[in-house]
Amino acid sequence: MDNINVLIIEDTPDQSDALIKVLLDNNYNIAGVARNFTDALKLFYEAAVDIIIIDVFLDGKPDGITFAESINIIPNASKPFVFLTSSNDRQIFERAKLTKPFSFLMKPFNELEILYAIEMAVEKFYEQTNVFLSEEQNTVISNDSLFIKKKNSLKKVALEDILYIEVEERYCNIITEKEKFVILISLTKISELLDKSKFIKTHRNTIVNSAKIEEIFPADNLIILKGNHRINLSDTYKDFIKNMNILS
Amino acid sequence: MNNKILIFLFYFIIQTPSLLFSQTDDNTEQKLLTKKALEFKKEINFVKSQSFYLKKDWDSTLIYSMKQLSVSKNKELNDYAHFFRGSSFLQKKLYKEARKELLQVSNKFALHLQSTILLGTISLELREFEKAKNYYNTALSLPEISNQIRSLSKTYEGLGITYFFLEKYDKAEDYLIKNETIKEKEKNDRELLSAYNSLANLYYVQYKDNQAIPYFRKAYLLSKNVNDLGKKIMAAENMSAVEENAKNYKKALEYRKEADKWTDSLNNQNKIWAVADYEKKFAVTQKQKEIKVLQVENKLKNTQRNFLFFSAIGLLLLLTGGVYLYAQKVKNSKIILHQKNKLDELNATKDQLFSIVSHDLRSSVNALKTSNSKLSATLESKNYDQLNQLIAQNSIIANGAYSLLDNLLHWALLQTKQLYFHKESIHLYSIIQQIEFNYKPFLLDKSITFENSVSKNIFLFVDLDSFKIVFRNLLDNAIKFSKQNGTITFSTNEIDSDFCEIIMEDTGIGMNQNTINELLQEGELLTKKSDSEIIGTGLGLQLCKQMIKKNNGTFKIESELNKGTKIIVTFPKMKQNG
């Protein structure tokens, strides 16, 4: 499980420092702090960024919105972002609102508010609302990662690191090469959100990352994954083998 | 000889009318008519027509007799009317009309004799000699003629002339002599002159000059006593013709000259008549002009009257219009006054708000100032325990001032409709936690227990920022009015699928019903608080109410003095679709 990388775009050092402190306290990584629009774009493309916190006004100009607008244009490059603003001036909001998904945080904000705002931004961005705060689910699934809420913070697991997923009622055991942990999500939800060509159901309660399969023993109803994990293969789900590219 | 006859005929024709027209003024006739007028006093038309008849005003007689005929059915009166009309037409020389009228007179008519004589005269004038002879003979045969000498002489004269024209000179001579004898007795010069003349002409035509000449002479001598110029001329000219035939030219010339003299004076008279006529005409035109002037004056008066009338109407309209406009103006000014009063009130409220806010801010900043100087003093004395306490106190003051300003800002934004308002799904529990987070120091300061027993599965559909403002204010109030070691509890009650009640309970000083009512009153910006120690603007709660309303929520207060207050806010839930 990795920490989330946050890019901060804020021209006032005092405020960025406060923000950094809160984020670090809650196990977020700071990908960088940009003071202006150009730096922001540079950092956005150079560093690995999961979430962006944008101050609307940079040096008195609404460059924060301009930045959001420019990353919004590029397909698949955009990341969840949160606007920071000190005024609810309608005009600014009307413009900022156009950069969907739009979430904002009024200054001054407290620790809880910034964390809540980040969670909301992620939910809205990946269009899976009311996840982190409900009691039934704590994970948002993006195209390449799982965003998992752990205590007050968010964690990230790259989908390519996952070996397999074991479902137990409302819980899922996620097994990666290095670790093993439990997330809160239903089987139906998770199988809906995962790419079906990459994650294959091999059993009533098992989903396997096809990229991690080392060996398949259909006769023994057995799959061996990377790291020598043995997985049961149920007859009902054997069909996927036909779709695989069989070498030899 | 030829010459002689011509002269005679010429004069005879001139002579006839005067001979005939002089016959009307008969005494018996006049008496009879006056008597009848008295008898038929009520028949206005008859009375008028007879009086005009006697005055010889022929036109008026014609008019009233006609009226009489058209109105009355009395046979006797109708006879009179026909008689009047016949006579009048005769005088106007309308012989045929005259005959028509007179023929309608009945045989029993009192003036039957007169009307018969008139009929004879008419026939004579129309040269119907046989008819004339018949009429005159009828008149002669009537018994009453013996009593009326004038009628008798008239009849004789008419018969004489008729026979004269029928060239039965013997009979003519007989009747004319009879007429002459009667006339001579009456001593009426004019009529006698006519009689002489008739006889003279009669003899003259028969070349009985010896008999004719004395009559001519008699006529001439009589003519001197007569005022009628026509007769004088006739007599003189006859004498001249006689002398001429007798080759006595000198005498003839004298007579001729005399005739000319009379002719001249007749012409003069004619001229005078003409002048008089002209004057009359002039007078008539003058009168007509006057009438015209009067007409014009009348017209002018009419137009003046119309003008006055219309101007009066115009003025009336103007007046009503003016009154209407004035009423409108009064109405408008009333509305304006009302609005002005309202505005003044609002302005006063605003000013009051302004003064309270600045007062609050001033005291806050002042407290900070004093606290800061204390702080530096404490720093110098290195009393670190007290330092912490002072800082906590400072932050409380700053927070109070900040929330006041925040409310003020939001109030202004709300009033100017500049507030950004965007409803979205919010997680109630987390938001309550976030709000509480800011108040932790205060809760701690008063040792207040805070319980958030809100269900974690509730998502509301509201504007996050305004929602936070509402609960920040409510919590602020709850802390402000809580005692040491109190409790503040947040809980929820899901009424139905659409709405959720959020209940905030405290164990503070509470308030009475009056205060609650005041707080809930719409539009009342400033609420006076019974607790003078904790003075507020009321702005916070006012803001709360407006924000709740904007979020389609409701607001309720339940409170008991010294036990605590329960504030119940209802908000719409997020629609269950994701």
TrEMBL record, chain A:
<keyword id="KW-0597">Phosphoprotein</keyword>
<dbReference type="InterPro" id="IPR007492">
    <property type="entry name" value="LytTR_DNA-bd_dom"/>
</dbReference>
<dbReference type="InterPro" id="IPR046947">
    <property type="entry name" value="LytR-like"/>
</dbReference>
<feature type="domain" description="HTH LytTR-type">
    <location>
        <begin position="146"/>
        <end position="234"/>
    </location>
</feature>
<dbReference type="Pfam" id="PF04397">
    <property type="entry name" value="LytTR"/>
</dbReference>
<dbReference type="InterPro" id="IPR011006">
    <property type="entry name" value="CheY-like_superfamily"/>
</dbReference>
<feature type="domain" description="Response regulatory">
    <location>
        <begin position="5"/>
        <end position="122"/>
    </location>
</feature>
<dbReference type="InterPro" id="IPR001789">
    <property type="entry name" value="Sig_transdc_resp-reg_receiver"/>
</dbReference>
<feature type="modified residue" description="4-aspartylphosphate">
    <location>
        <position position="55"/>
    </location>
</feature>
<protein>
    <submittedName>
        <fullName>LytR/AlgR family response regulator transcription factor</fullName>
    </submittedName>
</protein>
<dbReference type="Pfam" id="PF00072">
    <property type="entry name" value="Response_reg"/>
</dbReference>
